[in-house]
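Lab meeting, action items carried over

1. Structure of the two-component assembly. Owner: GW. Status: complete.
Input record:
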Amino acid sequence: MGHDDTSNLWDRPRSRRMILKGGLVAGVGLVPLIGAACNLASTSTPSPSGPGASPSGSSGPSGSTGPASSPSGPPSKPTGTLRVAIPGQPNFIDPSQMLEVTDASVVRNVYDGLLEWNEDYSELSPALATDWTANQDATVWTFKLRSGVTFHDGAVFDSHAARKTVEYYKDKNWGLIFANLASIDDSDPTVLKLSFSKPSPDLARNQTMCKMISPKLIDANAAGEQAVGTGPYKWVSWDKNVGVTLAANENYWGQKPYLETIKFLAVVDTTSAIVGLQAGDIDLVLKVPPRQVQALSLSDKLSHATTDSWVESNLICTTQLPIIGDVRVRQAIMYALDREAICRDILLNQAAVDLTVMPPGAYGYHPAATKYSHDPDKARALLKEAGFATGPTIKMAAAALIRVMGEEVAQATIGQLNAAGFDASLDIMEAGAWVSDYLKSNHPLYQTEYGWTNGGPFHFTLGSLTDHPHWTGKTILDLVDKVRTTPDGPDRLNLLAQLQDQYMIDLPEIPMYSLKLTDVFTAKLKGYRNPKDGYQTRLGGAYLTA
Amino acid sequence: MTSTQERLGDRRRGPVWARLDSIRRWSSRAPWVGFLGRRIAQGLVVVFGAVLISFVLVQLSGDPAEVLARGLLPDAQVRQLSHQLGYDRPFLVQFLDYFGRLLHGDLGQSFRYHQSAASLVLQALPNTGVLVVGAMVLASIVALAASTFSTLHRETPLDQLIRRVLIVAQGLPEYWLGLMLLMVFGAWARWLPVVGFSSWSAAILPVVTLAAPIAGVFTRLLRSQLLDQMQSDFVVALRAKGLTEREIVVRHALPNAMIPFVTYLALQLGWLVGGTIVVEAVFTWPGIGSLALAAVKTRDLQVIQAVVVVVAVVYVACSLAADLIVAAIDPRIRTGRSA
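Predicted assembly:
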């Protein structure tokens, strides 16, 4: 354009426009460099937590990491805002309806139950009930209630309020906690007596899931719109597209809360949540997948807590369908699977192979007498015995984006089945479509996960482990009926042992592994313990350092 | 004779035909009214179709109560939940009930939030608007600059580089681009917030993510129009008058090239309003995309339907705006007559 393109740049006449253009280009180019230099300067300053800060947590073979000590200790009054990423908005903040971690994380911090788990989930401890007893056949339960407790709205907690909650639960999702309830005695304000027409041996454990709701809230029929309990945190607001905000309840009857505010932010994408954690916009991310835990543990600004959990993964066998209805085929599946390799290579040792269908640590857990090792030859022999000269066709359905490394595990499962002589294939579908498909029993195998949320034989007494596979075998069904009606004690433990032994022979479901759950958080967060039930996030003892 | 009389022949017209004829005569005196009326009627058909299709599709995906229970609850509890939520009624009953309420402006109530679905969508819509308008403005600025530069410096190395960069940007998946921006500017550099709508600076990354793919499309469109304009006779005349290429492009060719571009912009705006789900999920942006995603996962039918209605209305409105702009500029379009 009027100048010689081959001439030396410095020899060309320089117009004001050229100089301005050059300056603009240089300026744009310098901005990232300046920014990087500022960032380097800020990251080179010592971490505020100093040398006494907790190291990145790591799990032992069993049990969880404890809260690390800090030289400063918890604050004397509630301080700071904790931002917790949950994988979506709550569906139900009504405790009688809550189903997911998105619900339970909020509920657990606003409400208390009559009982709760102790620090390491090894035994029940008092909460709104200071003592509890049952008669010999567990048909009458008596709870001595804590006095001097009020709900966040000023209503008094006593046996009348407790009765109102129990009655409120009846028609709701968790009404089954009070199945066969015959009468409630609240004549003494400090004692709640529940009588059942049939034994209710798990009632005490179930109180860790049942939360006491303010009678005023029940009367207003507003338990689905806000939360009013007795918990360490009070309900502030729910921005329906952002999340839930709680504030400290400084009149809490128990250990006073250390955080001024908690914000539960709905972050649907796990990667976004982790980036938010790294960027400092989020303080706590729940259930981080194993691969990302490894990457995050390299940062000194982050810590993690890992716990063995009561969450375990199974394959539901649709036993009324041909092929999978043959016990030899189900046993062949067990021998075909290399569950140790799955736990090691896919879940990066963040899971332990199931020796029975219940998770370790749950009441009644009994490693079954029948052991299944990875033995493809034995699998082929069983298939041949069952009459399959060539591989039987087996289709498995897995839900996308729901289970930790679920799709990868499902693909590995199919690969292992095919290597052992099956003709297996996989359908991955959206979670809702998975549920609809499962209810129609379209697939012989369904990958699923169970949370044994009451720390006991929950999915036996609920019927999941027999109903889901459409099991009709009399031995297991009779044992389940007996377990439902036998109080805790040696007899019940013996029945549970027999049940698990038989279950591992008949295999209505294929137990895979129990998960170790890891939550990752800012190194400033102390006193946090992740919940063994994988569900009810407890923030009562957590605090933020400067 | 009028066309109506021609169609009916010589017989006496009844009151209905007389009424129709009077409307026709009135609209012929005010062509805008007829044009607008036709477009609005077409828009209502589109909205109804969108509502019906989305209703059917969600119903086909199964009972929402079953989805919520995730197989955890016994059948009796699931049926109870289904009854509570009103999903145990026959499909036709549910649809007629819903449509009847829709005609009265009632978009239903979210079972999760116990709040009217319309209010949830209207609360989220401005947040989506921030992203959409921001992306459109950014993409338009890039397109204007790049297409003008390209027209003035055709086939120079810089022009080719810019066009190639925009083509690559057009092909980048939003999810990947968004995460890369998050990691670089959020986690690593910590220049910008990465979660939610905490401040106006939080809008920068999602706006860039949304704008990147469409900037290339806009640039190609506008460049093509500009190059066509530069072949016109009036440009030859302007050159003969002694105007510089820059003056011709910027002052004369560009305004003419903007007409189809603006039309496309309006249509793209409507499309983007319903197309921000991925970006909003990555950036945890509290817009209607996030709302819709959460509603689909939990089968919150009322909210799903409310989103569909609002997005369809916005799209129809944008489409109408595009038609009005073109019709305002070119009378041939609004009267339907040829030149």
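2. GW to write a short summary for the group page. Key points so far: Residues 318 and 444 of chain A are 5 Å apart (CA to CA). Chain A touches chain B through 51 residues (CB under 8 Å).
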